[in-house]
Amino acid sequence: xxxxxxxxxxxxxxxxxxxxxxxxxxxxxxxxxxxxxxxxxxxxxxxxxxxxxxxxxxxxxxxxxxxxxxxxxxxxxxxxxxxxxxxxxxxxxxxxxxxxxxxxxxxxxxxxxxxxxxxxxxxxxxxxxxxxxxxxxxxxxxxxxxxxxxxxxxx
Length: 155
Fold this sequence. Notes:
The protein is an alpha+beta fold. The chain has helices spanning 2-24, 32-37, 64-67, and strands at 40-50, 56-57, 70-73, 78-82, 95-102, 108-112, 120-128, 132-141, 144-154. It has an 8-stranded antiparallel barrel.
């Protein structure tokens, strides 16, 4: 009887120690790159402010055939721009592939230009959650400051 109780106690302690160890370890936090690569992303808001002019809702002026386009950020640092269900031109390819990256502290998103161009666009990551990506870009055009704000929704 004592032998059985001792074995049972050791078994309970062993199971308990494994359970408590797994609770003590925090899961590895997901990186911003992993967050982007985990879902497809569609632009759902796009505004531009030029100089002292009012903010312009560019998304409202976007053609319906462009509103269903979506981005796939892949783990290998390529991204696919998919034209969605409706292409604006039947001669356009369904997908275009380019590259992307995030800086070390996760504040800047780099998107390479499409179609083999060697230039890139840098965007400030203003917000990134599992469901939302909001990026911004400030630049000067014709001597005036332009501020672009783009929101993507994951699906």
